[in-house]
Specification:
alpha/beta, Rossmann fold, 2 domains, 3-stranded parallel sheet, 10 helices, binds guanine
């Protein structure tokens, strides 16, 4: 049975560390503050946004909440972002995605000041991540790096295979694993011989968005398997892109769903907001 990488515990540790950092900042008269913008009534987005606001409250980060109706114009949303860019009270801006179809998501992301882009989605943040200079890192990949480090999983010189090439997970994950000196392969829907490629991995990161697709036949014995997927089954239970019961028999370490990668995304968002006040 594989070692279980406990994202719930690790994210709780990170949040407690951040709570102490915020208390120290407050003592210097500095007050981290996140502006959260939610457009429309998508129930999943409402849950995510509420969880982000709750995490802010726990750590002592102030949050400003903006709930806009589904039919808000693109220009109104852009104006709110511009206003928050100029508001010295707020040091992080998060626009919950997805946005309604009539709004150009990339245009909104580009309007957020790179200095307040705590999601790490702005092209400037992506560029800084690629060349390895200081900037905001996309939260889910940054959370996975933290899971590996805090679980003492070696990355240096290891084969890392990532399945999925999204802008939010796959691509930034590749950049971060390169920074950790792994040899990186990014697979996607056109990859030939996916199974053979995956079997090379010492670290297999799965972000395909297909329920329980990866079973033990994709996994080298002893490999670390990180599951970024999140799906709800017919019986109401949550599961990932990895068939847990199968893979946990051969993997050396594995993240569960729920309680693996999921809680780390919010912890790293909080880390980005607080980290903006520190030099290193
Ligand atoms: N929608 C799903 N995940 C995310 C995220 O990490 N940030 C934002 N802004 N929207 C999302």
């Amino acid at each position: 049975m594989a070692f279980l990488i406990d994202g719930k515990k690790i994210s709780a540790e990170i949040k407690d560390e951040l709570k102490e950092k915020v208390a120290a900042l407050n003592a210097e008269g500095k007050y981290p503050c996140l502006a959260v913008i939610l457009v429309g009534n998508d129930p999943a987005s409402q849950v995510y946004v509420n969880n982000k606001k709750k995490a802010c409250a726990y750590i002592g980060i102030k949050s400003l909440s903006y709930e806009l109706s589904e039919d808000v114009s693109e220009e109104e949303l852009l104006n709110l972002v511009r206003e928050l860019n100029d508001n010295p009270e707020c040091n992080g801006i998060l626009v919950q995605l997805p946005l309604p179809k009539h709004i150009d998501e990339q245009k909104v992301i580009k309007t957020i000041s790179p200095d307040k882009d705590v999601d790490g989605f702005h092209p400037e943040s992506v560029g800084r991540l690629s060349i390895g200079t200081r900037g905001f890192k996309s939260c889910t990949p940054a959370g996975i790096i933290e899971l590996l480090k805090r679980s003492n999983i070696e990355t240096d010189g290891k084969e890392c295979v990532i399945i999925g090439r999204s802008n939010i997970v796959g691509k930034p994950m590749g950049m971060l694993m390169l920074r950790e000196n792994s040899t990186v392969t990014i697979c996607h829907s056109h990859t030939a011989n996916l199974k053979e490629v995956c079997k090379r991995a010492d670290i297999l990161i799965v972000a395909i968005g297909k329920r329980e697709m990866i079973d033990e036949s994709y996994v080298k014995p002893g490999a670390t398997v990180i599951d970024v997927g999140m799906h709800r089954k017919e019986d109401g239970h949550l599961c990932g892109d990895v068939l847990f019961e199968s893979v946990c028999k051969v993997a050396g370490a594995i993240t569960p769903v729920p309680g693996g990668v999921g809680p780390m995304t919010i912890a790293m968002l909080m880390n980005n907001i607080v980290g903006a006040f520190y030099e290193d």
